[in-house]
Amino acid sequence: MKKHNFYAGPSILPEFTIKNTSEAILNFADMDLSIMEVSHRSKQFVAVMDEATSLFKELLDIPKGYSVLFLGGGASTQFAMVPFNILNKKAAYLNTGAWAKKAIKEAKLFGEVDVVASSEDKNFNYIPKNYTVPQDADYFHITTNNTIYGTEIRKDLEVGIPLVADMSSDIFSRKIDVSKYAIIYGGAQKNLAPAGVTFVIIKDDILGKVDRKIPTMLNYQTHIDKESMFNTPPCLPIFAALQTLKWLKANGGIEAMEKINIEKAGILYDEIDRNPLFKGTVNKEDRSIMNICFIMNDGYEEFESEFFEFASSKGMVGIKGHRSVGGFRASTYNAMPKSSIELLVETMKEFEIMKL
Known about the structure:
Order of helices and strands: EHHEHEHEEEEEEEHHHEEHEEH
Helix content: 25-40%
Shape: globular
Strand content: 15-25%
CATH architecture of the largest domain: 3-Layer(aba) Sandwich
CATH class of the largest domain: Alpha Beta
CATH topology of the largest domain: Aspartate Aminotransferase, domain 2
Structural class: alpha/beta
Number of domains: 2
Number of helices: 9
CATH superfamily of the largest domain: Type I PLP-dependent aspartate aminotransferase-like (Major domain)
Largest sheet: 7 strands, mixed
Number of strands: 14
């Protein structure tokens, strides 16, 4: 039975990426060696790194004066690296969910943190509005897409101070103006590659302004100077990321991805709003197009486990909602085909007929 992969992360990857990466595991660059056993200093792997960096910049139209890094440690390490490198006295944060809270916790180790607004009062089911960003802060940090709660900031904010964004789960899903950001970072395992590599886009002139000494491995400048090769990088995930970047370019780039992503999300949200058995968990204006969260409607909660089993019987995996929200979550990343969304909608309609 064909599987329809709705996992939030690690998550679905293009078949192109899986095929090419699996071939490279057996024989990388016609070397008769696996990508898993080749030196990161070899000319063949250096070529991979160079092409991945180049395609990253091309697809996102990254302007001059920015560096692209491929690091280890996940986005969770970036929660500390960001303030370590650029928080001198005070930082401002927007609290929109679990990952934002973790980033705030780390930043407090390095200086004053002003949480300008939070949606925790309603279990993070909306994006705060009408807050004021302190202009004396060193930077303002946002989490653009919240995988657990299904909210998303789908525009580039104008805040008057350096803007930092965790884009782990919506990078390459929509067009962004990189010039509006000082740092963009994210774990790759939600829309780019297997777990193990973290991307960082950083404006070079944001660095060198803090008073503290920074450990070598946690200093962005170390990795900029050595082009992500100061230590051994996560070679296999970087190779897989390159395949996804090639796939993105071949399929029309970011604008094409955004168009189909909006269409896919619309198909599912329309059914959630129409079907009396289900309801969304997020303010409509703040709905994510990457992670679509919904629950059984009032009075039908008893059907939750039954619907999960019904969907599973049709080959759907990973649709159970996060334990802090419950219900269901359909992650509709770039590689998710529209046909899988359509099958989920058909399944919801069938279940409606069965129960009503």
